[in-house]
Amino acid sequence: MIDDRKHLTPLEVERLLQAVRGARNGVRDYCLLLLIYRHGLRVSEACELRLHQVDVESQVLHVARLKGGLSTTHPLRGDELRAIKAWLAVRARMKVKSENFFLSEQRRALHRSTVNLLVRKYGELAALPLPVHPHMLRHACGFALADQGADTRLIQDYLGHRNIQHTVRYTASNPARFGRLWR
Q1: What strand order describes the sheet that includes 72-75?
Q2: Looking at the whole model, is its pTM more than 0.85?
Q3: pLDDT tens digits for 119-135?
Q4: Which residues participate in catalysis according to the annotation?
Q5: Torsion, Cα of 96, 17, 155, 7 (10° steps)
Q6: Fold of 10-172
Q7: 64 and 101 in contact (C-beta within 8 Å)?
Q8: Cα–Cα distance between 45 and 33 in angstroms, integer?
Q9: What residue ranges do the domains of the chain occupy?
Q10: Which residues are CB-contacts of 63 (< 8 A; sequence separation ≥ 6)?
Q11: Where are the alpha helices (DSSP H) in the chain?
């Protein structure tokens, strides 16, 4: 049977993140994949992330949505802050003046094709049952929020969707929404 899912499960995301540990650019890549997943970032939004959008002191991430999406400010959790601080320490040693948050080894903004290759490679290292691409982490975010019982409108705002129809896929397929029926 072919697995044609367009998202990863939380366990698969965890395996993907574990596959990053010890990699050559593991500190950067772990931070990158964690932020893409937790904040439902599109790959271009992650690549275009600027230093001023990541406010460690206030513990918030200012998400500038692309594709006409609604930009928002998200709280940063403890593990995200630790990953960000670890990456910023590595980044500081690169001695570069770029405003881009994520940098390549060549000290330039990380390119979306590089992120696509990294995610595919880490998916293979994690022995995930399907080919992985970065947008699957955005969808994983939506499904994880729905599984936690988040309201469709809240997920819509969090992911920056202007149209609710782009959000209902996450809640419509969630069996937990029927849990209180027939009690």
Answers
A1: 54-55, 60-63, 72-75
A2: yes
A3: 999 999 999 999 999 99
A4: 42, 67, 135, 138, 161, 170
A5: 120
A6: hpI Integrase; Chain A (1.10.443)
A7: no
A8: 12
A9: 10-172
A10: 39, 41, 45, 53, 71, 72, 73, 74, 160
A11: 10-20, 26-39, 43-47, 78-93, 112-125, 135-147, 152-159, 168-172
